[in-house]
Amino acid sequence: MQQQGVTVWFTGLSGAGKTTISTALYQALLAQSFKVEILDGDTVRQHLTKGLGFSKADRDENIRRIGFVAQLLTRNGVIVLVSAISPYREIREEVRSKIGNFVEVYVNAPLTVCESRDVKGLYRKARAGEIKHFTGIDDPYEVPPNAEVECKTDQETIEESVAKVFTSLQQLGYLNHLV
Ligand code: ADP
What we know:
By secondary structure, the chain is of the alpha/beta class. It has helices at 18-31, 41-44, 56-75, 89-99, 111-117, 122-127, 158-171, and strands spanning 6-11, 36-40, 79-83, 102-108, 149-152.
C-alpha cells in the first residue's frame, strides 16, 4: 500500500506551540518510516518567501507560496507539516481547497500565555513598539472554526498535543501504509 500524502497545517499565535508540536510529530513519523517534510514559517521566510513583510497582502502571499509547495509534496505522497501563524481564515481555506488532503490543527493558547512564554522575545518588542503588525497585539488572528484538531497547549503536555494530532491522522486514514 502506498503512503497517501497529506498537509497538516498548524495555525496559531506566535508561541502557541506550532513548531514544538510539528517537530515532535516529525520525529514520531520518521521513526515509523513515513515520508515527511516540515515547512516552518520562520525558516521559509528566510528563502522561499524572503522579502515578504507582514501586511495582509504579504502574509497571504507567504501562505500561498507555502501552500503551493505543500501541494506538490502532498500529491507525491509526503506528509507535510506546515507551521505558520497563518492568521487569515480565507487564505487558509483557499489552500485547503487546493490541496484537498488537508488537516488543520488549531494550536490554541491564550495570548497571555503566549506572551508570558515569549519564546523568541518578540512580544516584548511588540509591546515596546519595536515591532509593528504583530499578530495578537496590533494585528488580527482569525480563529479557525472548522479545524480537525485543536491543541490547547496551556492545558496539555507536549506529548498529549502530539498524540492528539497523531491519533487524528490515524483516524482520518492517513497513516495506513504498510512499512
Ligand atoms: P510557535 O511555533 O507556535 O511560535 P513554539 O513551538 O516556538 O511556538 O513555542 C511554544 C512553547 O510552548 C515552547 O516553549 C513549548 O515548550 C511550550 N509548550 C508548553 N506546552 C506545550 C504543548 N502542549 N504543545 C506545544 N508547546 C508547548
